[in-house]
């Protein structure tokens, strides 16, 4: 906690970077999380009383799913996953209410929250809450793109996608066909793994098709909602084009980068630190036949873009809205996201993203401090054998080669060399 407080104190002092001054948003307010937690506890109690559950075998499962979702959300509040800042809250609420009022939707039924999450995404919880991840500001270039994303999430709520999804999942899980297939696999003497894998693939594809359909539906009605704001319609296509690539890592760390960054004052890295420990099951890490697009945070953007382009008029303005409030958030988004990752104890990812920036900006004092503080935390976790809590696991399916190399490096480096690197980054 001491280093986290120190990092915030560092960022509350203006740090010059070119023409930019950065002051971190405090994301550690206990008072804010307590008030928000009480608000949502009451909200969930009210919702649960009003839910009319269907009769049948899936009834209890539906109750369990709602309870699990709500508890998960309350845990996020408890762990201070949401940013409480009057200016940011007022700004985002203004954008959401602009959409709602233009479309004659009751603003009292909706609430918008800003999450510390660095993932480039936003989501709807099904109870009228729209959550915007701070990481989204790394991608949006203007306010119009942000407003379309919010319109899209309002579309999910308007169409009751979360509620319908819970009921559909419960029905599928308790369906006679799935139960029968599962029992059949259990009776098999040989080939259980293959049969189970094939069943899982079918469920994944079916789920993907439903996700894809819901995203297209939310795009469609979201574009109608967005159109009523009279903002630039091309922004919808622009942001979907960017989101289509958001799951792809745009930068990486090579062995040469590590040597450039860490080899200081006569210190030399050893090649063996980058050797990856091959899993016995590595040949199964990447399942053949799985559509990569089905694993994306934003499925089938190419099709969705084409559908929206058909709705665009032949002529539209190239001007987009970027008022001062948006520009300030956008300007600070890179540093703030690194701070958010650190304050969320995601020291590995915070360090990884910091290093990718630092290799191009080695004179940046803010990046130097973030790297130093993350190194300290990861060093402590190595000493205490808790590194897996703070650093991602090696994963051939979901990680890039660069991220897997980073994980290997942090796990393989000698403690004495770790100490040398930390001292070299000490300001």
From TrEMBL:
Keywords assigned by UniProt, alphabetized: Hydrolase, Metal-binding, Metalloprotease, Protease, Signal, Zinc
Any Pfam family matching the protein: Peptidase_M48
A GO molecular function for this record? metal ion binding
Q: Which GO terms describe its cellular component?
A: membrane
Domain Peptidase M48 residues, every copy: 89-310
Is Nucleus given among the entry's keywords?
Answer: no
Can the keyword Protein biosynthesis be found in this entry's annotation?
no
Q: Which cofactor does it need?
A: Zn(2+)
Q: What GO biological process terms does the UniProt entry carry, in alphabetical order?
A: proteolysis involved in protein catabolic process
First and last residue of the signal peptide:
1-18
Question: Which superkingdom?
Answer: Bacteria
User: What does this protein's record comment on cofactor binding?
Assistant: Binds 1 zinc ion per subunit.
Question: What family, per the record?
Answer: Belongs to the peptidase M48 family.
* UniProt name for this protein: Peptidase M48 domain-containing protein
